[in-house]
Design a protein that fits this description.
binds flavin mononucleotide; about 45% helix; globular; 7-stranded mixed β-sheet; about 220 residues; alpha/beta; two-stranded antiparallel sheet; 2 domains
């Protein structure tokens, strides 16, 4: 903890016009370096206050991002989602469906499944993964589920594919999460081929909403 005098010296040195941070606030930042100048402490407090709601006590919300991708488009969406969920403070597992298991589903508080559109439906690898989840029935109840898909054509069956994925969440008794109004406000994140800026934004928005919803559900 810096003395008030030391704080003043640092403030003058860095020409920082912000008021000196209150002692109580600085105390809450025990794990931050004592050598932070006041304006840095202020930013750190804001960062911590932003992240705090996404923690259950000391434990992070777990998010599983599982996908199938033959030519890389759905994979690109999955990576954007995983990164965004991590930035929201979640602990993330990003898995190709071949490497994912029921244990991953049980571990997760929020589950995002991604598939290319194949004949207006999810790819068979994803369907098999969902079918195999029958053995963990009941154990996925009240987890958050969301979907993202990549199609070749705008009207090639994105919504039918997303709905098929969301249906499986409903059957598991999960809480289905659509994409937020700020990024489209419909069934989930979609892309035509490689995700463009708009699709990437949808992916980030969906990830953020899943983390926020899973956090809320955990705390109830
Ligand atoms: C077997 C097969 C079926 C497909 N069916 C559709 C379809 O019904 N509608 C559509 O828009 N695109 C369809 N496509 C195109 C893919 O959905 C599209 O290329 C997608 O971006 C591929 O995702 P990926 O790169 O993650 O594999 C199909 C592709 C394949 C290989």
């Amino acid at each position: 903890m810096l003395s008030r005098k030391a704080n003043c010296r640092r403030r003058a040195h860095h020409k920082c016009k912000r008021p000196i941070v209150r002692q109580r606030t600085a105390k809450q930042l025990k794990r931050f370096d004592d050598t932070l100048v006041p304006c840095q402490i202020d930013s750190a407090v804001r960062l911590k206050n932003h992240i705090q709601p996404y923690f259950r006590g000391d434990q992070m919300v777990n998010v599983l991002v599982v996908y199938y991708s033959r030519t890389g488009n759905t994979k690109a969406m999955a990576e954007i989602i995983a990164e965004a969920a991590g930035k929201e403070g979640a602990q993330v597992r990003l898995k190709e469906v071949a490497d994912a298991s029921n244990d991953d589903l049980i571990w997760a508080d929020g589950i995002l499944i991604g598939s290319p559109v194949y004949f207006g439906q999810p790819a068979s690898d994803i369907k098999r993964f969902i079918d195999d989840s029958i053995s963990v029935r009941k154990q996925l109840e009240n987890k958050v589920g969301a979907a993202f898909v990549s199609s070749g054509h705008r009207a090639g069956g994105r919504e039918t594919t997303i709905m098929a994925l969301l249906q499986s969440f409903i059957v598991h008794g999960m809480v289905v999460c659509g994409d937020p109004i700020s990024t489209g406000g419909h069934y989930g994140a979609v892309a035509s081929g490689t995700p463009d800026d708009r699709s990437s934004q949808e992916c980030r928005g969906l990830a953020k909403k899943v983390v926020a919803l899973a956090t809320k559900l955990q705390s109830t």
